[in-house]
Recover the amino acids of this structure.
């Protein structure tokens, strides 16, 4: 495939209202307008951007089928745009998923269902949601995209599988709390961890990594913002400092992936079939 | 540097956001709180004054007839330094009405009654002021249970609830609170000459160091002993934390139906906001 032309992306670091689809739909529409005005061809929203995060028993109340009314409005608004946004998906079998839709030019390209639901400490996603079980590459006109919803990024397998499949961009929508205020840290500990995760993934997998987090407060949980972009060399090229809502725009050139991979052909030298054989050997000896 | 040390500017920023968001989403832009003259309520008032503007914060002095006059003096220093609105309501008649009728002499019971009288006044004043009642309990006293249930522990929101006493002092210094408030010995001032540390039997510095290792770092008893904490102290604090869990949770209700409130009827306060 020919390397896609460079383009401008906008990350919308928004503050959704918990459980209020109407208010959040309006927020998405105004962000779409702003991104178009800024000349962006891709616009990404955070995890569960249409619903807010700590839904608990609101989860089924705000769940949408893929052709749900609010999603249809946004699909239609995606003319000339690649649009990523988070919602609760109600699957035909009734299961609910922490989902991320990619629309492009008025079509639904893909829905990623969060694989690694986070259920420890302050999180309890597995109580309300089913887990996805696939990391499918999205073929966009801007390149091959791999979606990793928040905790999906904390497990190497997802990003690694996308790497093997040759993605150009890891899209990492998140609803990450800002925590950790010890004087020994330079700012929020959680923000520093995300910075390191992005840089690490971009370095190892020679891709762009686009992290879009939310802001705002839900019952004392202060979401950490700090949306950021790392290039295929693992360098941070754009960051939205602080905890306010805002936009981050950046020029993405997928030619940089090729240059990074020519300099160090990590993907060529990867040994997935050895990993598979090793997993089988380990599995055989496990019992 | 102590492991308890916090980034004061960052924490100030987070707490101001917390205060504005968690009141604004419910349609409020004003708060009120009881001012004891101590560092906790002074810090909560200082944060509120920054978050909402001094004119939108009401500091209420609530002395009882045996209260140390210095407490009110220090509360006035805080009010003056911050420029917040203030009110003085003597709770003596209110508290004595019950204490005398019921012939209550136990200092603990008397102290609890005073704390609950103050709560009644604050919640009533909140209607007139059209503000939310701000909590002033820190993490140290919440863990130790060193508070009166439905008294000083009652509030709509509490900016200090995840800060140990050491961190309260650190932030209070950063915000430039009066020296008289920063330098004096912490006291609930429920009876003459009372100090927190004498009543608790250990210092806040000792308690904070242990609580941080035990709660935040989840260290085992073996690890705590290896760190140099005395076994009797560790066991006493662990016991206190567990014994006072009831103060930190809503009342227990029987789970009779298929959907019991808070148990499997789970919504945030931010529901729809």
């Amino acid at each position: 495939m020919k390397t896609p032309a460079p383009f401008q992306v906008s990350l919308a670091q928004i503050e959704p209202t918990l459980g209020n689809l109407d208010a959040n739909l309006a927020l998405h529409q105004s962000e779409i307008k702003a991104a178009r005005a800024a000349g962006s061809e891709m616009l990404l929203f955070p995890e569960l951007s249409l619903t807010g995060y700590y839904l608990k028993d609101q989860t089924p109340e705000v769940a949408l089928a893929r052709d749900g009314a609010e999603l249809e409005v946004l699909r239609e608004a995606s003319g000339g745009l690649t649009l990523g946004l988070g919602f609760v998906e109600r699957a035909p079998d009734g299961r609910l998923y922490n989902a991320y839709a990619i629309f492009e030019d008025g079509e639904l390209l893909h829905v990623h269902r969060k694989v690694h639901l986070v259920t420890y400490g302050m999180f309890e996603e597995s109580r309300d949601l089913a887990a996805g079980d696939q990391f499918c590459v999205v073929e966009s006109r801007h390149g091959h995209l791999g979606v990793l919803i928040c905790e999906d990024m904390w497990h190497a397998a997802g990003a690694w599988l996308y790497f093997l499949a040759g993605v150009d961009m890891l899209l990492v929508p998140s609803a990450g709390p800002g925590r950790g205020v010890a004087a020994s840290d330079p700012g929020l500990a959680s923000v520093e961890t995300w910075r390191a995760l992005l840089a690490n993934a971009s370095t190892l997998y020679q891709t762009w990594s686009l992290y879009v987090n939310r802001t705002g407060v839900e019952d004392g949980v202060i979401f950490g913002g700090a949306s950021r972009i790392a290039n295929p060399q693992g360098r941070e090229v754009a960051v939205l400092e602080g905890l306010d809502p805002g936009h981050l725009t950046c020029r993405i050139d997928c030619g940089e992936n090729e240059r990074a991979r020519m300099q160090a052909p990590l993907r060529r030298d990867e040994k997935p079939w050895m990993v598979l054989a090793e997993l089988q050997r380990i599995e055989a000896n496990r019992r | 540097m102590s492991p308890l040390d916090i980034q004061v500017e960052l924490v100030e920023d987070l707490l101001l956001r917390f205060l504005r968001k968690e009141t604004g989403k419910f349609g409020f832009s004003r708060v009120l709180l009881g001012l004891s003259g101590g560092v906790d309520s002074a810090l909560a008032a200082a944060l509120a004054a920054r978050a909402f503007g001094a004119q939108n914060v009401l500091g209420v002095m609530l002395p009882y007839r045996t209260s140390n006059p210095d407490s009110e003096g220090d509360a006035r220093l805080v009010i003056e330094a911050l420029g917040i609105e203030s009110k003085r309501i003597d709770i003596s008649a209110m508290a004595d009405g019950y204490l005398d009728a019921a012939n209550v002499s136990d200092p603990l019971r008397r102290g609890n009654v005073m704390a609950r009288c103050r709560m009644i006044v604050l919640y009533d004043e909140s209607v007139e002021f059209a503000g939310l009642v701000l909590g002033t309990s820190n993490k140290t006293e919440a863990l130790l249970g060193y508070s009166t249930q439905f008294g000083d522990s009652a509030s709509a929101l509490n900016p200090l609830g995840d800060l140990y006493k050491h961190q309260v002092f650190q932030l209070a210094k950063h915000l430039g609170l009066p020296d008289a408030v920063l330098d004096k010995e912490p006291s609930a001032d429920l009876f003459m000459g009372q100090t927190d540390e004498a009543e608790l039997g250990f210092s806040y510095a000792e308690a904070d160091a242990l609580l941080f290792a035990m709660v935040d770092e989840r260290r085992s008893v073996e690890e705590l002993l290896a760190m140099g904490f005395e076994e009797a102290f560790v066991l006493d604090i662990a016991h206190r934390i567990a014994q006072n869990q009831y103060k930190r949770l809503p009342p227990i209700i029987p789970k009779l139906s298929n959907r019991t409130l808070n148990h499997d009827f789970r919504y945030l306060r931010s529901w729809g906001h």
